[in-house]
Amino acid sequence: MKVLADPQVFQQQSRKWRTAKKSIGFVPTMGALHEGHLDLVRACRKKNDATVVSIYVNPLQFGPKEDFGQYPRTLQKDLDLLQAEKVQAVFTPSDKEMYPEGFSTAVEVKGPLVGGLCAPFRPGHFNGVATVVVKLLGAVEPDRLYLGQKDAQQVAVLKRVIRDLNIGVETVVCPTVREHDGLAMSSRNQRLTLEGRKTAPVLYKALKVGKSIVDLGERKAEKVLEEIRKVIEDEKSVKIQYLEAVDAETLAPVWEIKPGIMIALAAYLDNVRLIDNIII
Ligand code: AMP
């Protein structure tokens, strides 16, 4: 397994694969890898000759009051896990390699895709994500990009960026991988206290309650969201940041629940921000 940090060296590697007619699949991550990431890696390996994983905690996508400093960094363990998955190459650029002195370009995403959900609470976040992913795609030049449904707004934004900027990559979205108690796997889960970890599954439990109410015939989004909110608010330590019903593609708010609707939420627990969603 190659571990490369220089974008230009990575481009050379990718060109070698391309010349040898090998397909390249790419899984961008911020490290602190868990089964959710490894599921993307495995899906990527199945379809591509070369699997590339990037590990980079991108400062551009964290707000000044967010957890950039506390974000877990476990590089050696991550590399061991990727080696065991038989990944061909890992891209681990430094901040200087990603944003050298004089760096002056950014991708700006506008419009309804960044009108709700996480965007109003994380100003600049999706521009930071879009900019870093465009840079990573430029270094890796993959045929396929693997993303997790857990970060549904990120998926919608990146698909749009790829379309708008004519980037020749196919996007593959993989389902959310969960702990045995339903909690969506996240690198941030390790920052929960023991008590917080016990409480955190309430988020998915509440989303499932919402889905079961829909299955029983309820079509008013407001009613469904109200029931979900009640379940979560039973846990006093959980603070909901947003809870919305949106169209899963356009992310526009909806008032009537139909197939293809997504219910998404963000909540704080132990000062840790968790997100989750369910597609009805
Ligand atoms: P991150 O390291 O959090 O930036 O995530 C890297 C990629 O892994 C993103 O495409 C995420 O959506 C995806 N991912 C993170 N957690 C999960 C999960 N529990 N299930 C599926 N994909 C995930």
Describe what you observe in this structure:
The chain is of the alpha/beta class. It folds into two domains: 2-174, 3-Layer(aba) Sandwich (Rossmann fold), CATH 3.40.50; 187-274, Pantoate--beta-alanine Ligase, Chain: A,domain 2 (2-Layer Sandwich), CATH 3.30.1300. The chain contains nine helices and nine strands. The protein has a six-stranded parallel β-sheet with strand order 1-4-3-2-5-6, sandwiched between helices. β5 (144-148), α6 and β6 (170-174) form a beta-alpha-beta unit. α1 packs across α5 and α5 (125-140) packs across α6 (152-164). It starts with a strand and ends with a strand.
CATH superfamily of the largest domain: HUPs
- Structural class determined from secondary elements: alpha/beta
Helical percentage: 25-40%
Instruction: Give the SSE string.
Output: EHEHEHEHHEHEHHHEEE
The number of helices is: 9
What radius of gyration results from the CA coordinates?
19 Å
Strand content: 15-25%
Nearest-integer average pLDDT: 97
Number of E-state strands: 9
Low-pLDDT sequence parts: none
Number of domains in the coordinates?
2
Query: What best-fitting shape do the alpha-carbon axes yield?
Result: globular
- What's the story with the biggest beta sheet? 6 strands, parallel
CATH class categorisation of the largest domain:
Alpha Beta
Distance between the termini: 40 Å
Kindly report the CATH topology of the largest domain. Rossmann fold
Small molecules bound: adenosine monophosphate
Q: What's the CATH architecture of the largest domain?
A: 3-Layer(aba) Sandwich
